[in-house]
Every structure is written in C-alpha cells, then in structure tokens.
Amino acid sequence: MGRPIPDGDPRIVSLNLLDFDDYEVPMKFLSYSLNGQEGLAVEVDGTFRGLTSDAPNFPGDLLSLIRAGSDAMAEAGAVLAKGDVVDTDAVTYLPPVSQPEKIICVGLNYRDHSAESGFEQPDYPTLFGRFNSSLIGHDAPILRPAISEELDYEGELVAIIGKEARHVSEADALDYVAGYSIFNDASIRDYQFKAPQWTPGKNFDDTGAFGPTFVTADALPKGCLGLRLQTRLNGEVVQSAMIDEMVFSVAQQIAIISEFLTLRPGDVIVTGTPSGVGLARTPKLWMKDGDVCEVEIDQIGILSNPIKDA
C-alpha cells in the first residue's frame, strides 16, 4: 500500500488507478444484485463501477473483503474500478453486509431522545440485538405489520468493525472500524414495550433498513464527529442532530462492548437515534402505507425507503 492520506486532509480523493499506488485511497462501496447475481461496486468520480458474481474477476462480497482485511479491500477497489458502469436505477440495492455475525444496537444514546422517551439517561449503554432476518436495503419497502399500526422511524449511524476487537481501549477503538453506513431502526413500538426486553419490537421482518453504501473510515472524520444526521418523513425533517451529541461515542461503544464479547470483522454497531421519534409526538406520528422515510448523514449518503403494509 502506499502513503496514507494524513488525518484532516481536506482533499476529496476518488479512486483513480493513476494514484492508487501513491495513496491508501478512501472508498465508497455499493452492494447490489442484478439479474439474479450479487454485485459489488466502488465509486469512481461520482459514478459506480463494479462486477457481478458471475464475472471471473469478481473479488467477493463486501463482508468477505472486510474479513480479509484492508489490503484485500484496496485490491478489490482497484479491480472494481475497471468494471462496468453500474446503472443504479436498474439494480436492487442490498444491505452493505447482509450476514454479519452480530448486529448490536445502542438505545438511549442521545440525551434529548432519552428524555422524550421517558427514560432517565443511563450511565451505561442500553444494548440490544437485531437479527439478519430483519435487514433490507435502500429503496426496499419497510413493512408495517398487520398486527400493529405503531411503526416508528429511527435514523442512525452504523459503524462496521474491520478487525477482531477484545478489551480495546477507547483511545484505540476507532482503529478497529472498517467504515460507516446508515440505518433506519424502524420499530414496532407496542411490541417493543410488551416486556422489559425490546427484542420483538426491534426485529420484525423487513424493518431494518441499511445502506445504501459503505464508506471506508479513512474517508470520514474520526468517529464521524462533525457530521449531521437527519431523518425526513415525506420530505419533512423529523430528526436532526450532530453525531457529536451522542452520549457514548463510537469509540466508547466499541471499548465498552469489547469488554464482554469479541467483536469480529463485519460486525455491525447501530449507534443510536436522536430525538424526534414518532412515539414522543402529540399526536403520535406513525409511518404508514405510502410514506417515504429518508435518513441522511453528511458525506455518507441518503438511505430512502417507502413504507408499505405487509
């Protein structure tokens, strides 16, 4: 690999084969399917280029590349950059990683959200799990189940682990992040609060919207500090906060989680949602059939999903 881009360098560097040997280039990956084949693309000068799994030089899916390490990701990026231009209107978006070993979500991680939800701000992260079966990609419908009308939005930053992490210090924690993405932790509120554990309300099929892209950590500020998260429902802003407002930063979350389990490459941490959720409004603002929910994070992108009745 060549020289890394210095911390704080303001240049926006696209993957260009002419400078690939000179820099460890930040990359934005897109996972998709086309004509029944899984594909992977990388952004080159504002356009995605990639290959599908039936191509002889297909480098593998994103999860396998993350597990193989940063050199494998860089090499894959160079191969994908020579691939075909991807018509993003013609593909089906997939979650950046569809089968992570673990999806760990952090609740009550913005003080205003804890307050609006009626909880005293905890001094230890409120952690719960999501399952792969709930994941959907960008543009896929979030399904409101027939048994509940209480479908709520939660825009969140995702950190994806890049190397095995156990007993990691907060100072070193961000070195274990491969990159970032966006999540809509759509929640069925009446099922979330049927019992002290939130698992049912957080794991309905087709409610975990994830994507559309994966941006390598070196392309973004450390821990995504200084970036804004915004959620819009039918074009109206319903959530807006700086990542800096988290109670437990990305680095703190990794350090704390790694105290009790081993984080592995490809594991997903969904880092918490700010205030403005539908549950806390008067009247309640539940998502319904025909709505469109968007979650945007600066420099990462926009995750957009229509709402449909199951």
Explain this structure to me?
It contains 5 helices and 22 strands. With 310 residues, it is mostly beta strands. Strands 3, 4, 5, 6, 7, 8, 9, 10, 13, 14, 16, 17 and 20 form a 13-stranded mixed sheet that branches. The chain has a 5-stranded mixed sheet with strand order 11-22-21-18-19, with no helix packed on it. The model is unreliable at 1-24 (pLDDT under 50).
Number of helices: 5
Strand content: 25-35%
Rounded mean pLDDT is: 92
Q: Which regions contain 5 or more consecutive residues with pLDDT less than 50?
A: 1-24
How much helical structure, as a percent, in the residues?
Answer: 10-25%
Whole-number total of structural domains: 2
The biggest beta sheet reads: 13 strands, mixed
Summarize the structure.
This protein folds into two domains: 91 residues, no CATH class; 207 residues, Alpha-Beta Complex (Fumarylacetoacetate hydrolase, domain 2). It is 12% helix and 33% strand.
What keywords describe this structure?
310 residues; mainly beta; Fumarylacetoacetate hydrolase, domain 2; 2 domains; 13-stranded mixed sheet; five-stranded mixed sheet; 5 helices; 22 strands; disordered N terminus
